[in-house]
Amino acid sequence: MSHRAGGRATGAMERSIPSTQDFQFIGGSLALDFVNTVGNRLGQARDYFATPRDVVRWAAMPNCLPHLGLVRIRRGDMASIGSRREYLYELFLPFAKGTKPNVSRMLAALNLDIRQLWSKKTLRHTDGRVRWVFDGSAAEQLAHAIVSDAADLLSSGRCALIRQCQDDSCGWLYLDRSREKNRRWCSMRDCGNRAKARRFYAQHHGKGAA
User: Fold this and answer.
1) Range of the domain at 188
2) Local structure of 171: helix, strand or coil
3) Is residue 63 a part of any domain in this protein?
4) Cβ within 8 Å of residue 83, ≥6 positions away
């Protein structure tokens, strides 16, 4: 859902760049929603994490990680956040396309993150209970949550449900939990409606349907 369906049906609308929307959570997985913070990935891509403040706001949203509170993200954290997002996209994409992934190469970056981030977890006895405690920065705590979700997505077999929105520009990933496993769009309210508008325009202006 990287763009909004417009009210006008013009030839230019098919490839136009719509107004930026707020963060959306349609992936069915924290790791996929993290990857989907790039809008129009297959067209003129827009990074929704333009500043550290954007990352903080994303993490604090109700569908994300509100229990972390307002995490502190520094500008120096942005490079690792961006690289993590891209290697996860490359890791998930073959499952979405139904192609055979190069597992060894593609898991290397994830395994490195797992080793580095999980080493910061320790067990402590507090308030009469033994609890996991994460001893790291806010950026590392956020990364740990995302990486853990990605690892669970892969190891649970749910990765077989990953699909990519069929809009030409969108590129967002999601888990297809539909009964027939035939979901085509990140959202019918957005890319699905855009496809309907293109078909309607084509049918009434003598062009082939998009």
Assistant:
1) 17-205
2) coil
3) yes
4) none
Q: How many residues does the chain have?
A: 210
- Give residue 173's pLDDT: 97
Dihedral in degrees, nearest 10, Cα atoms 58, 74, 147, 70: -40
Q: List the CATH number of the domain containing 189.
A: 1.10.3300.10
Looking at residue 205, what is its pLDDT?
Answer: 62
Instruction: Give domain status of residue 10, yes or no.
Output: no
pLDDT, position 146 = 97
Contact 17, 168 (CB under 8 A): no
Locus of tokens 């749910």 = 158
CA dist 161 and 204 (Å) reads: 36
Q: Which residue has the tokens 């082939």?
A: 208
Which positions of the chain have pLDDT values less than 70?
A: 1-21, 188, 190, 192-210
| Residue 159 confidence (pLDDT) | 94
Give the type of residue at 174.
Y
CA contacts within 13 A on the Cβ side of 207: 13
pLDDT of residue 21: 58
The pLDDT assigned to 187 comes to 74
Within a domain: residue 210? no
Which pLDDT score, from 0 to 100, does residue 184 have? 87
Total domain count for the chain? Answer: 1
